[in-house]
Amino acid sequence: MASRSLAEQPRRAASLRRYMLRNRPEILLVPAIFVLIVAVWELLVKLLAVPIYILPPPTEIWRAFRDGLGSGSLVEHTWVTLQEVLLGFAVGSVAGLVVGVIVTRFRLVERTVYPYVVAFQTVPKVALAPLIVTWFGFGMTSKVVTTALIAFFPLLVNVIAGLQSVDQDRIDLLRSVNASEWQIFRMVRFPSALPFIFAGLDVAIVFSVIGAIVSEFVGARAGLGYLIQVNNYNLNVSGTFAVLVVLSVMGLTLHLVVQWVNRRVVFWQRDDRGSVVGA
Amino acid sequence: MTVTTQAAIRIDGVSRTFVSKRGETVQALDHISFDVDEGEFVSIVGPSGCGKSTLLKIIAGLIPASAGQVLIGGQPVAGPRSDIGFVFQQPVLLPWRTVKANVMLPVEVLKLDRRDGERRAADLLETVGLSNFANHYPMELSGGMQQRVGIARALVHDPVLLLMDEPFGALDAMTREHMTLELLNIWSAYRKTVLFVTHSIAEAVFLADRVVTMTARPGRVAEVVTIDLPRPRDLALMNTPEFGRYVSHIRALLNARGGLD
């Protein structure tokens, strides 16, 4: 038995590979396009002799990236930014969640507070970054505050939308057995709002990276935004690109983590309508 | 006041008015009165807009009556109660809970003894033929199965009254017929007082001891028809002339006032 299944393994692996290629060709196409773009980029930059301080070739960026890793500076600044992003995201999301719950719980609060929320939402939060740096200094605090402020609104808006769109039958079901408001919230309203909350978290995590970087641009002594500015100042465009690579990997990874948790928690939601991510 | 045999439920001059979006007052229910005896199966049949669902919600204490009152076991209904089972048109299962956890919901809300509740839930799932699906999630079940879970859930806390608001309305004809028979089985097993709202005259007659026939705009009781057909009943009953006479009598009542729908 064992030997036979061992012998079958290569054949099964091959058929699996063929199956994947037929049904999910993007598995091959996505990396292929990446390779193509990098190759064309490298070729064009070399052929047209573009100066390295305008657009470095990918090989140059790769070298800057490895230097950054080797000297430890890239790792160090990434760690600073990652902390700002995660802290700000956590503070902003929790605050958005709590305020959203309070706002929907009390009609009067909703009617009184919501106009301000809408008004404040139209203010580009990054425009407040200089003020926040003035108030909270060049350290990590000002970055966390800006990031939290940016992460707050997607959560708030989605929590409110989620809690307000709960199916009335579900609430009547709980009321029909004389449930308390708290039981209705715990057993129906909150779980029903979870898909919305995760849509908010997904937007918030991507916004958080933007918030941390912009805040570092305004005034910082460490972090990837700071590193971009230093590189730019020294006309080290390859170094800037290396930071951009790290930033995209960071953003993508955080987004995927949120999506993964989403699928785990909201397991009953089968339709994978990709959430809108945009700043 | 002389004490006679008390009706399990007394609906006493219940009216309900709504204010429409245009600011007009709409009378949904106009002085509805009838009694339901302990263990009796009463169907309410009528066109859409006759306020059948509103009446059920008033009985359940989910919305207040504008006038009149509902007495359950002699006590006026003043708000949501813990001794009523409600079955909705849609199954209204919570998708994050397993079948068993959905059935257990009233037990959790009412903080009843968990062990007793679990025993009852298991019994009820057995009765509705879903024992093997206790640990499945609702999305893995067909519409008919989901509605059976809804019925089991409405009975798990041993209510005195089962309110059913067009529970089979969203099912296909075959499943619907099957569920009607199944409901009769459940009813003979648990002998609850049932108020069953439906669009279907045949369904109303087939299930009930009495049929409350309602007309629309405003919702009024046209006649309470006593169905004197032997039990246990099976689908063959639907082909008998007696059954047909009841159905055509009720249809005539409804047509006299504008017809069904």
Protein model, in words:
The complex is a heterodimer of chains A (279) and B (261). Chain A has helices spanning 2-23, 26-47, 58-71, 73-105, 107-121, 129-136, 140-164, 168-176, 181-218, 224-233, 237-265. With 279 residues, chain A is mainly alpha-helical. The longest helix of chain A is centred in the C-terminal third of the chain and has 38 residues, at 181-218. The radius of gyration of chain A is 24 Å and the shape is flat. The N and C termini of chain A lie far apart (57 Å). The relative contact order of chain A is 0.11. Residues 272-279 of chain A have low confidence and may be disordered. With 261 residues, chain B is of the alpha/beta class. In chain B, helix 4 (114-127) crosses helix 5 (143-155) and helix 7 crosses helix 8. The model of chain B has no long low-confidence stretch (mean pLDDT 90).
List its salient traits.
heterodimer, A: 279 residues, mainly alpha, disordered C terminus, B: six-stranded mixed β-sheet, four-stranded antiparallel β-sheet, 10 strands
Number of strands of chain B: 10
N-to-C terminal Cα separation of chain A, in Å? Answer: 57 Å
* Helix fraction bin of chain A: over 70%
Determine the structural class of chain B based on helices, strands and strand pairing. Answer: alpha/beta
Compute the gyration radius of chain A: what is it? Answer: 24 Å
Average pLDDT reading of chain B: 90
Order of helices and strands of chain A: HHHHHHHHHHH
Give the biggest sheet of chain A. Answer: none
